[in-house]
Amino acid sequence: MKLSKDHKKDTIKLSEDHKKDTMKLSEDHKKDTMKLSEDIIKLSEDHKKDTMKLSEEKFALSEEKYKLMAENEPFKLYEPIDKTLQRLSEQENFKECLRKTCKLNYVHLEAVKKCLAGLYYTSLKALHSRTNEIEICAKDWETNEVIALGMESFCKNVLSSRFITHQVMFLQSQKFALRNSNPQSSLFGSYTNSTSHSFPTTPIPTSLLYPPT
Known about the structure:
Layout (H helix, E strand, L loop, with lengths): L1 H71 L10 H6 L3 H13 L4 H9 L6 H5 L4 E5 L5 H15 L10 E5 L2 E5 L16 E5 L13
Antiparallel strand pairs: 1-4, 2-3
């Protein structure tokens, strides 16, 4: 009888100890699970930060590479080409003006040069209308096309000039203007902050709109 009672006591004690150990293990497991979840969240956030940092560094490197290319690459125009652009493309002041414009406005120089040589492929109706105004709308015109149009009109206005001095071209937000050395003069006149701008100018000659035959 005594052995049976002792056995029961030992069994009860072992059962209680087992329950305590089970509860302790369960709590430890919960703590470990929570800690692992926090570590995973932290690693995920660190990964996002590292990815963003790498993207920013990659963008900065590509921008620096573009600037170096824009400064060092040989200047050439694409077919079709007209005599005005051909003569101007040989002048360092003109090339420097175009390079600075592209650099300041984060526009690719090659894209603008392609538009310079083939602007008659875009917005034909506006350019062929022979009206006193050309409407430049931010919804319809790409940035490089706006710059190209300004350079085309600029070519027309300096056709009789032997040299180019102190030209400043800039494109900001939805505003575009091309000014020459006279601060009172502007090839495109005044402009506003509206989405669509009308710039008074004489019609662009067909030599700037069609490829030479």
